[in-house]
């Protein structure tokens, strides 16, 4: 097992064709925000979609199990980002597993994982994002992916949806998607209000929790993918902008 020569964590992230941005993936942003918040020294290695599996398997990370037959949405990739390699050579994949490991190794400042709100909001966001994928995926394909990864990414996504990205956007995107997402937005708005402990800007009020990073990561990703997408989300869920702006200091380092 290789070890870091400089004592830093290595974060594996996706590149983008937008030169003004580094990180853009919402899942990677969750981990990056934890590293920034805890002031953990780290470096970033950007790898394309085609490089993810060979790179992470070489680190000794076990592959994800396949998605159950008949489950909705695109297929589960055996390897995904984010992944990190710790200074001792240990490698961890998936933002949910990574935050637990980092909280164990770097407990201060803490992220209140014990409140479990990050898991609760994932259920809410799952409901919301199912219809909105028909809006987001075409934008990701057009705006974010480096050109050499577009064909492979497109084949995998189209296999999961059972139609081309163009057909997905035409038949399920646009106002059809936003209308279908209304129940999800209602659930998100309730969630962002019902856990307030005081009048602060975070999900729980004045105290930061990891759930704030889940919310802010999604918002930051939308803003980088397409500003109009971000604004439409914030129109439907005003609390999203509040949490996102409150987390701004942990979104500055993106490479």
Automatic annotation (TrEMBL):
<protein>
    <recommendedName>
        <fullName>GST N-terminal domain-containing protein</fullName>
    </recommendedName>
</protein>
<dbReference type="InterPro" id="IPR054416">
    <property type="entry name" value="GST_UstS-like_C"/>
</dbReference>
<dbReference type="InterPro" id="IPR036282">
    <property type="entry name" value="Glutathione-S-Trfase_C_sf"/>
</dbReference>
<dbReference type="Pfam" id="PF13409">
    <property type="entry name" value="GST_N_2"/>
</dbReference>
<dbReference type="InterPro" id="IPR004045">
    <property type="entry name" value="Glutathione_S-Trfase_N"/>
</dbReference>
<dbReference type="InterPro" id="IPR036249">
    <property type="entry name" value="Thioredoxin-like_sf"/>
</dbReference>
<dbReference type="Pfam" id="PF22041">
    <property type="entry name" value="GST_C_7"/>
</dbReference>
<feature type="domain" description="GST N-terminal">
    <location>
        <begin position="15"/>
        <end position="110"/>
    </location>
</feature>
């Amino acid at each position: 097992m290789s070890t870091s020569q400089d004592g830093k964590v290595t974060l594996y992230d996706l590149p983008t064709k937008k030169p003004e941005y580094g990180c853009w993936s919402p899942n990677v942003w969750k981990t990056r925000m934890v590293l920034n918040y805890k002031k953990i020294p780290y470096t970033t290695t950007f790898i394309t979609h085609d490089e993810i599996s060979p790179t992470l398997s070489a680190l000794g990370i076990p592959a994800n199990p396949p998605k159950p037959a008949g489950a909705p949405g695109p297929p589960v990739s055996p390897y995904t980002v984010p992944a990190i390699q710790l200074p001792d050579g240990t490698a961890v994949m998936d933002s949910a597993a990574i935050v637990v490991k980092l909280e164990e190794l770097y407990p201060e400042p803490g992220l209140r994982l014990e409140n479990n709100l990050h898991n609760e909001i994932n259920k809410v966001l799952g409901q919301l994002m199912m219809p909105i994928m028909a809006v987001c995926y075409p934008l990701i394909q057009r705006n974010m992916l480096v050109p050499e990864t577009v064909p492979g990414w497109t084949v995998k996504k189209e296999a999961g949806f059972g139609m081309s990205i163009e057909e997905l956007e035409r038949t399920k995107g646009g106002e059809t998607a936003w209308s279908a997402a209304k129940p999800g937005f209602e659930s998100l708005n309730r969630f962002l209000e019902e856990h307030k402990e005081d009048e602060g800007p975070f999900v729980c009020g004045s105290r930061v929790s990891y759930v704030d990073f889940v919310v802010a990561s999604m918002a930051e990703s939308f803003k980088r993918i397409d500003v109009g997408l971000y604004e439409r989300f914030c129109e439907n869920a005003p609390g999203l902008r509040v949490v996102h702006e409150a987390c701004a200091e942990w979104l500055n380092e993106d490479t």
